[in-house]
Structure formats: structure tokens, C-alpha cells
Amino acid sequence: MWMTPLRAVRGRRGRLLLGLFFLLLPVGALRAADDYIVGPSDVLNIAVFDQPQLSSKYIIQSDGTFTFPLIGRVKAGGLTIQAIEKDVRDQLVKGSFLKQPQVTVSVEQYRSQQIFIMGEVKQPGILQFTGSMTIIEALARSGSITEHAGMEALILRSTNGGQAPQAPDAATLARAQSSTDAHNIVHVNLQNLQGTLSQNVELRGGDTIFVPKAESVFISGQVQRVGEYVYRKGMTVRQVLTLAGGVTERGSTRRIQIIRSVNGVDTTIGATLQDAVQPGDTVVVRESFF
Fold first, then answer.
1. Which of 13, 132, 149, 277 lies 20 to 30 Å from 57, alpha-carbon distance?
2. Domain 216-287 CATH class label
3. φ/ψ (deg, to 5) at 61
4. 129-152 pLDDT, tens per residue?
């Protein structure tokens, strides 16, 4: 709701994201083994029943393969866990090494895929992608959003043609904020996460989550709470003053000014309670004459 101060909105939403993370984590963990695509540097734990000499940990090399006893080089890069299990099992049978081998493959260490998280989060950086992760989980793992976060997050899909993904630079992030129809950008309304999970987007390896800073207005002069507040589209001077707790006894609603940057120059404009404000405006309430 537009009348809620910036700090209170962020605090409640941050706690909600953390709570949803713990509710959803077990489900994500169960799906990870099914969905994860193995890549270079991942460490696999392969167990063959009643064959301890074959059961061990195997590191995927840069070419996407690993060396398995009796078989030799086995392709794993780009495959799911089930596909690797089937390939190892089939090759053991085809080579007449074992008749009905029971092979189990799991990921010991996730190293090949990453999620980048940037912007207004408490712990920006890199998250290891484990095959199943939603935006709520990623935000929770990064400590949730800051009190300065906007109401929308952007998910930038990797378009590097299979090469190792890299975090986007500032220019790319700026273009993403102004784009509305790019096929590789997903817009997520963070406010909607409070009441529905419809925008709890499933992430992919190489995704970048960017949480821009909220647009804001500044309020000074004869108001109860001078400070910075979240801007909402269509907001009026009256609504801005409500955020600040109203005008003091010494202030006058007939003596309101808006300081606005126009072409890089600060311009002072006389304003009424019905006038619209713009992002970056400073609303000043002056003292009454009487």
C-alpha cells in the first residue's frame, strides 16, 4: 500500500520471504536431483551396489567427462543424474562387467552452475545453483531485500550460447530496467509475493536477479517526520504529506514548494495538495505566516 513508510514495508516483506524460503526448501531439495544438469567441476557420488571398488566420488572435467573404472571416459556434461545412471549401468552390462548392476548417482558438490544476485539485497553475490531454485529461495539465501528495494525484481536470462555465464555490467542492468518486452528479461512484482506465489519464478543456471533501488521522494520543512519515502505512480502532495505524518502546528498547507531537477537544474515550484509529485522531488512545507 502506497501509504506505508519505506522501512516498514521492507521489514515485513523481508520476514515473509525468509518464512516462505523455509517452507519451500524441502520441496526444492527433492526436485534438485531430477532437474539438475551436470557440468564441469561438479563432483558426483556414484555407488554401485555390492561393488565398493567402483563406488567413489568423481569430478567432472572441463570437457564434461569423467573416468570410471572398467569403462573409461564417461560423458556427463549436459546430462541429468538419471541419464548418467543409465549410461553407467548400460556400459557395465555392455562390457560384460556386471549382469544387473544397481547404480546410484548423486551430486556431492554443485560447482558448475551459478545464480548471480545484485542490487538492493543484503548479501549480493553468487549462489550455487542446485537444479531447482525459485526467486523467493534466492532472495532468502541472500538475506532478503534491503529497505531501499523497489517493488520489482528483474531476472536476466543468460544468452551466452553455452559459455560460462558472467554477471552483467552496469550498462546491461540499466538497459534491463528500461526494457519492457525483452525475451530474456523476466519482471517479478515483489509486492505480489505477499499474497500469491504466481510470480515465484523458477530460476535457471546462469540467471541474474537484479533488485533495483526504489524511486523515492524527499520531505522536509514543517512535517512530523522529515525523510525519504517510496514514490508511487500518481502520488500527490497530499499523499506525500500523509507519509510524513502530516504538517506540524507551525506549518502551512498553503506554503508548499516542490524542488525538482529539470534538465539537471534544481527548480522550485509552488504546489498545492492536489499537485502530482515526481520521483526525486523534494517537498518542502514552509512555516505559516501567523
1. 132
2. alpha beta
3. -80, 175
4. 887 889 999 999 999 999 888 888
For residues 38-52, give the mean pLDDT. Answer: 95
Q: Does domain 43-109 have CATH number 3.30.1950.10?
A: yes
Q: Which CATH number, 3.10.560.10, 3.50.30.40, 3.50.50.60, 1.25.40.10, labels domain 113-211?
A: 3.10.560.10
List the one residue out of 111, 126, 114, 124 whose CA is nearest residue 158. Answer: 114
- Cell numbers 535457471: residue: 204
* Pairing status of strand 227-230 against strand 216-221: antiparallel
Q: What is the mean pLDDT of the chain?
A: 85
**Cell output for 63:** 570437457
pLDDT of residue 164: 57
Residues 6+ apart with CB under 8 A from 157: 184, 185, 186, 204, 206, 207
* Predicted local distance difference test score (pLDDT) of residue 194: 62
